[in-house]
Amino acid sequence: MPLAPTVAVIGGGQLARMMAEPAAALGIPLRLLAEAPGVSAAQVIADHEVGDYTDLTTLRLVTDGCAAVTFDHEHVPTEHLHALEADGIAVRPGPEALVHAQDKGVMRAALADLGIPCPRNAIVETPAEVDDFGYPCVLKTTRGGYDGKGVWFVTSEEDAVDVFAQTADTGVRILAEELVDFRRELSALVARSPSGQVAAWPVVASEQRDGICREVIAPAPDLDPDLAVQAQQIAMTVAGELGVVGVLAVELFETTDGRVLVNELAMRPHNTGHWTQDGSVTSQFENHLRAVLDLPLGAPDARAPWTVMVNILAGEGAGRLYDGYPHALARDPRIRVHLYGKGLRPGRKVGHVNAYGDDLDDCLERARHAAAWFAGELGDESE
Ligand code: ADP
């Protein structure tokens, strides 16, 4: 008999890998379904199978005997999640909630019903309908996009024709959104347990470049306290009304005229919450696991006035990663480094660093320097 209930995790990326750390501390066994041998999480979770998450037999094999199943990504087919529920496994988050993170069209409709502020949007079926919607606008595939893939900024019918041509074979619906004039992007992160307890971390500012999250500052500097409360309330409302279990990240635009609009939902630990590993009393990974098992949640309070997270993207040249440790760790004994054990394909997220302290500029400088060093962007002048 295991000493604690086993949690199955579907998907072997860095999020599953980072769940393993609090799981080990709490004595909670994890069982992983990895998409290939040796992927990020398979390196650290001994109890793993390699297989296809779209295959129900494989999902049943991995979840057999587990108390609950949770996810590194949102791509497991909804009908399989229903089947696992019928088998008696607690699916967390459950299929009814998860569909809102899988399909942007479903998400927009649900948020409209809840009266949550969103960019003006409509499902469009032809370039002529995009014309009617108006330019400039943003077209998005409702399913399957990530890191800016499946998002197009369009200014003319010609652009719209192009997008429909590119997506014609996929059968995926297209969502049109107004081009939001935003000051910056914010993220409101909460964890919710099945009993309804909610922990809300401070609202953060995230910087995205080419659709990829590069930096996060916690808390968002100079954020109007009313907007911060509004952002947290949106996240708590969405989590409660959609029945989310585990971490919910609500990505928001802070508009130039001082409003917050919801961009996206993610129902799993999120890149904008990686700062919590070192910057808050309880990390998003720990509270995700606690929520999945319906344990009391830990405090989301910040440990320091500022925490900065900077992603390490593999460089065009060879990144340094482990070879960077002698320099990066000696230069800054307070820097916190998280590497994912991933191959160095250029542009890929391979790790992140966190720096926390009393002075924001100092945290920014330290985290940016360390990330740039690992990514191989700095020369040897600072050695
Ligand atoms: P993904 O699912 O790939 O993360 P997002 O919907 O988050 O895609 O869009 C990626 C990025 O594109 C956002 O972080 C934001 O910078 C920009 N973006 C998305 N929607 C809009 C919009 N309606 N107006 C302006 N910029 C947008």
UniProtKB/TrEMBL annotation:
Alphabetic keyword roster: ATP-binding, Ligase, Nucleotide-binding, Purine biosynthesis
Gene Ontology molecular function, alphabetical: 5-(carboxyamino)imidazole ribonucleotide synthase activity; ATP binding; metal ion binding; phosphoribosylaminoimidazole carboxylase activity
Catalytic reaction list: 5-amino-1-(5-phospho-beta-D-ribosyl)imidazole + hydrogencarbonate + ATP = 5-carboxyamino-1-(5-phospho-D-ribosyl)imidazole + ADP + phosphate + 2 H(+)
InterPro entries: ATP-grasp, ATP-grasp_carboxylate-amine, ATP_grasp_subdomain_1, PreATP-grasp_dom_sf, PurK, PurK_C, PurT/PurK_preATP-grasp, Rudment_hybrid_motif
GO biological process, one term: 'de novo' IMP biosynthetic process
This enzyme's EC code(s): 6.3.4.18
Alphabetized PROSITE patterns for the sequence: ATP_GRASP
A matching Pfam family: ATP-grasp
Keyword set includes Ligase: yes
UniProt enzyme class: ligase
SUPFAM superfamilies attached to this UniProt entry: Glutathione synthetase ATP-binding domain-like, PreATP-grasp domain, Rudiment single hybrid motif
The protein's annotated pathway: Purine metabolism; IMP biosynthesis via de novo pathway; 5-amino-1-(5-phospho-D-ribosyl)imidazole-4-carboxylate from 5-amino-1-(5-phospho-D-ribosyl)imidazole (N5-CAIR route): step 1/2
Top-level division of the source organism's lineage: Bacteria
One of the record's GO cellular component terms: cytosol
Record function comment: Catalyzes the ATP-dependent conversion of 5-aminoimidazole ribonucleotide (AIR) and HCO(3)- to N5-carboxyaminoimidazole ribonucleotide (N5-CAIR).
Protein name: N5-carboxyaminoimidazole ribonucleotide synthase
Species of the source: Nocardioides pocheonensis
